[in-house]
Amino acid sequence: xxxxxxxxxxxxxxxxxxxxxxxxxxxxxxxxxxxxxxxxxxxxxxxxxxxxxxxxxxxxxxxxxxxxxxxxxxxxxxxxxxxxxxxxxxxxxxxxxxxxxxxxxxxxxxxxxxxxxxxxxxxxxxxxxxxxxxxxxxxxxxxxxxxxxxxxxxxxxxxxxxxxxxxxxxxxxxxxxxxxxxxxxxxxxxxxxxxxxxxxxxxxxxxxxxxxxxxxxxxxxxxxxxxxxxxxxxxxxxxxxxxxxxxxxxxxxxxxxxxxxxxxxxxxxxxxxxxxxxxxxxxxxxxxxxxxxxxxxxxxxxxxxxxxxxxxxxxxxxxxxxxxxxxxxxxxxxxxxxxxxxxxxxxxxxxxxxxxxxxxxxxxxxxxxxxxxxxxxxxxxxxxxxxxxxxxxxxxxxxxxxxxxxxxxxxxxxxxxxxxxxxxxxxxxxxxxxxxxxxxxxxxxxxxxxxxxxxxxxxxxxxxxxxxxxxxxxxxxxxxxxxxxxxxxxxxxxxxxxxxxxxxxxxxxxxxxxxxxxxxxxxxxx
Length: 526
Hints:
Strand order of the largest sheet: 9-4-3-13-20
CATH class of the largest domain: Alpha Beta
CATH topology of the largest domain: FAD/NAD(P)-binding domain
């Protein structure tokens, strides 16, 4: 083995991931005077789920009440939410939205009049309480955050850098004496996607904000880079992971051969759209008294069942016949995108299919974002605060990322100790194979095709013990091959992602096998 990695980057805080949770954490920590290295896998803002969030963010509507919001969250989560975390979200959410998004970032949320915000309605909510910027809320939030972060000299952003592994002691220490110490995270090994070299990012505190794992499924609303790297790294580092079986599928992604998981926001149904079979018959009245505004897991299973009943690859979402708003004005992004694929949503229904959307489980954290591993925090979708229970209520994810991003950085700043907690010279450098096997892209593409089709068919919307057992056997066999490939191949972001992805697919499968009770978005049909 040869050692070619000596680059070291120090900061008070390392943040991995740049969606709303990571960006909020960076903004708050920088405001508290800490130095921050922010590592982002994509070359731009488009790599996060935040950027593609259409619907909006939960606040409080005019006739709203905190107890009503709590009830809606608990009901959607099938009553296994963490009550303490739900209380934090509800009590601090509106204040965080007002202070950060409205006052500091000046997000131009839609208004029903010059002095009155407009609130949208989404499935599972008993009130109109969703703040939005037309149908591109996440994009406007992401852009505003990064315009603000650029103003801080103590924030250094590293785009096009892939986190490979969390750096922990004693595991990455060269000293045998370190095994007497309590395990602690001290940063991460990070691959520069352009140079293909691994750097050591050292920090006394690390925040995982790496997002979810929807892209381990064949159909997803997430960017294809969203493969759950944070879950895999945290598991290997020894942090507790919970509730990985609860994968929420969004009911309505655009069904078109050239559209890669384009989301049709739940707000479309909130503004009157009805679901129909491809033969034009409505069906949600058969499955829920709330019809199209039932929680996502119920709508998803109803669509899935109707696709089976009618031997169809999709259903139709009819906004044109039922809209209560000016479609082009309320949903300009969806209108323009669908029109690119030959679908005029003001005149015809939209073909849609369910898609993997959100992981309700993840790295277990407390109300301050602390994980079970010293020095490591987690915020956003990679974390499991317990807010979502067995199923996420629409538009609470951006709010959760905002609230816990603030709380994690505030907690770190309040307890910060300047001295680095370990001797950096005793931390293992990165090693590369002497004989690096050439990467064949066809093998990577085929491995991903196997992972995604296996997860979709055997560990997807409706699960059985036999399907999950088949998934486990196939994925475990594939993992052995991928692990060997990873050890012998040159460092490459595609190889790193593949290693993360197979581990995450197995985490979901193991959790789904272990839980034989149907709840929320984990549905067993045994």
